[in-house]
Design the sequence.
């Protein structure tokens, strides 16, 4: 069997192991679904009436849901780092390391399994969004592309979180360290309010923030952007899908090899 085929086979086995773990620990899936529902209801009904400056013809529900999608998948990607840190702490990675399997299989299996959890979260959020007034106003193909862009970005962030989990090795510290970075990225963006309300310095940061591009790409592909809205000044928001894909390629190109290398070192400690 070729090395590529062996890596694929090992990755499938690890992915199945992680998905079976979710089945046996239903708390994981329960909280993965309750959290997005809470965010949708909280922002739609508690903050929605106080937020103005929306594009003409766009309801807050349609403005909000793509932002909630992006925030939830990025937050969901922290599961990768915490799970890897937990496996290291329990010595499970050392057991995997003693088996004749590809070194990258553990990381690939972990990130793919977490991608599945993110997909479930998006489905739950989408159904909740439909209840509170969100609608997809584009074609089926564009809608599928919107979900694909969201999940692709989530998968890339999972690899970044994998490296954090390998370097920190304590689930609690992984969560704390991740939130210190992720919360500013998801809130200093166009996730919940229009960028026009930001101070100039924060607005410049938000315009080039990759989370803003993901949100804008989702809004455009779901048909949740108003044609009457002014054209964004930043190239990143004029071409949000392309800018998002550039970030996905950069993150994977940097953090996949770094994570695989760190896995070999961390497992040997």
Sequence:
């Amino acid at each position: 069997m070729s090395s590529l085929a062996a890596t694929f086979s090992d990755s499938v086995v690890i992915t199945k192991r992680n998905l079976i773990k979710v089945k046996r620990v239903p708390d994981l899936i329960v909280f993965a679904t309750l959290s997005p529902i809470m965010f949708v209801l909280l922002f739609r009904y508690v903050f929605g009436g106080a937020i103005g400056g929306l594009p003409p013809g766009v309801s807050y529900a349609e403005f909000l849901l793509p932002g909630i999608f992006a925030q939830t998948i990025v937050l969901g990607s922290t599961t990768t780092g915490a799970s890897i840190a937990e496996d290291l702490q329990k010595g499970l990675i050392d057991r995997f390391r003693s088996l004749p399997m590809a070194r990258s299989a553990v990381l690939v299996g972990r990130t793919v399994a977490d991608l599945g959890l993110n997909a479930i979260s998006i489905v739950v959020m989408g159904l909740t969004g439909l209840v509170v007034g969100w609608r997809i106003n584009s074609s089926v193909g564009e809608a599928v592309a919107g979900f694909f862009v969201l999940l692709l970005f989530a998968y890339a962030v999972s690899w970044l979180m994998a490296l954090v989990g390998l370097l920190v090795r304590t689930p609690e510290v992984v969560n704390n360290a991740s939130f210190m970075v992720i919360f500013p990225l998801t809130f200093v963006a166009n996730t919940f309010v229009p960028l026009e309300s930001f101070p100039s310095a924060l607005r410049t940061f938000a315009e080039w923030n990759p989370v803003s591009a993901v949100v804008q790409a989702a809004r455009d592909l779901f048909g949740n952007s108003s044609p009457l809205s002014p054209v964004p000044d930043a190239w990143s928001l004029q071409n949000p899908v392309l800018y998002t894909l550039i970030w996905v390629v950069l993150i994977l190109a940097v953090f996949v090899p770094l994570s695989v290398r760190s896995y070999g070192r961390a497992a040997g400690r």
Observations:
- The two ends are 30 Å apart (CA to CA).
- The mean pLDDT is 86.
